[in-house]
Design a protein that fits this description.
The structure is a homodimer. Chain A is mainly α and about 210 residues long. Chain A is built from nine helices and no strands. The C terminus of chain A is likely disordered. The interface between A and B is large, with 49 and 49 residues. Chain A binds a DNA duplex (30 and 30 nucleotides) through helix 1, helix 2 and helix 3.
DNA sequence: TGCCATCGTGAACCTTAATTCATGAATAAA
DNA sequence: TTTATTCATGAATTAAGGTTCACGATGGCA
């Protein structure tokens, strides 16, 4: 009755190959390449085979999103739960997120901002929510510790998440020039600004990163 | 040669009726109702007639977006150019935007966050950019006047715009309970938080609006 | 009144991928 | 070595709307 281990392994591996192909296609040229036939061919399987592993296109991409997003959320979660003041954690989390996004530019752009089909877009919302949840946790800690102003943690977390995501859209856009120095500067800018929203005693001035990119 | 004025008026009126029908459909039940046949029937014209006035579905909705968005951008622009400190203008602009959005909940949700087809989504980006531009203008003024921290105005504007838009997504969502008191409280919260990002000397504490909704 | 240009009509046509499925191969059980 | 399952295949099918177009109606104009 039980399927042999080797065979099962094949299945898991093929599924992974399809997921990878899908992710890679998006990472290369965005959602316009998110077509079942194309992904199948990239994964070295027939079109129909994709449906042996995924219920539908939406299902496939929901899993791709989960795959990629969970890693990012985990990275942020780790920072959120790390040692140090809430203020420091917040800045670190945002900075790290921004820098990582800048590295995987095209994919990050697709995950965050690129226009795509409604079903995929809907799946994206979950990712954003999960990220906001992490921030919210941190905000609560900051408030409890008296580091942050006393404000609804969920609203604050949305604001923070919205701020740094939106600020990333421009730099991540495929038409923007890739420049890893500017990327870090922007990440720093974004982290600083986002953090100021909450700090009870903000630093007197931000590093004037604006001039770095000039 | 010249078409009679009456006849021309008819044309303008019909076009307006189609635009209105499209906007109303979206305002009622979102993008799923954004179908040419449906809009045509609502406007009291035949499906094909829509194509006498608009090049394509994308064109139609781009114009719908423009119609609605331009008003909102204009409102913000008026506040941006109004008397008063940059700080005050910023808070006013954000608060007003948020309150207006909360009034036209469903439509605002569709314009800001609801998953939709890529072509429409792309048009949305322009709206966001226009709004960010207004904020950027204000930010420059605030920096020049020494009210705001010295930071890249475009990055800052993106952050501010992203912050208040993202924070609106939850409250605007169709499944959220409509409550005009909570709406104002959230608007205030959002305005306060967004503003703190930039103020050189932030108010010691925000109004603890978080408790109003509790 | 008759003619022309323009507008309105809506059923038929397309397009574009997603999805299915009859078939065959490969593997596990007997 | 059969036999039964499961898996892979990819061409054919579907589905869902956007878009077209041949035709009729209407209004302006001489």
């Amino acid at each position: 009755m039980a399927i042999a281990a080797v065979r099962l392994n094949q299945l898991v591996e093929t599924k992974a190959r399809i997921l990878d192909a899908a992710r890679d296609a998006v990472a290369e040229s965005g959602w316009k390449d998110a077509q079942i036939a194309l992904i199948a061919s990239r994964a070295g399987v027939a079109t129909g085979s994709v449906y042996r592993y995924f219920d539908s296109k939406a299902d496939l991409y929901a899993q791709v999103l989960a795959l990629v997003s969970e890693r990012e959320v985990a990275v942020v979660a780790a920072i959120v739960e790390a040692e140090g003041s809430a203020s420091q954690c917040l800045v670190d989390a945002i900075y790290t997120f921004a820098v990582r996004a800048m590295r995987g530019r095209r994919l990050a752009y697709a995950l965050i901002a690129e226009p795509c089909e409604p079903e995929i877009d809907a799946a994206r919302l979950k990712y954003r929510a999960a990220l906001a949840d992490q921030i919210a946790t941190l905000v609560r800690r900051g408030i409890a510790d008296g580091e942050f102003v006393d404000i609804d943690a969920n609203v604050a977390a949305s604001c923070v998440a919205g701020a740094f995501m939106e600020a990333l859209v421009g730099p991540l856009a495929p038409e923007a020039a890739p420049d890893s120095d500017a990327a870090k500067a922007i990440a720093q800018s974004i982290a600083g600004l986002s953090a100021r929203m909450l700090f009870r005693h903000p630093p007197p001035e931000l590093t004037p990163v604006s001039r770095v990119s000039a």
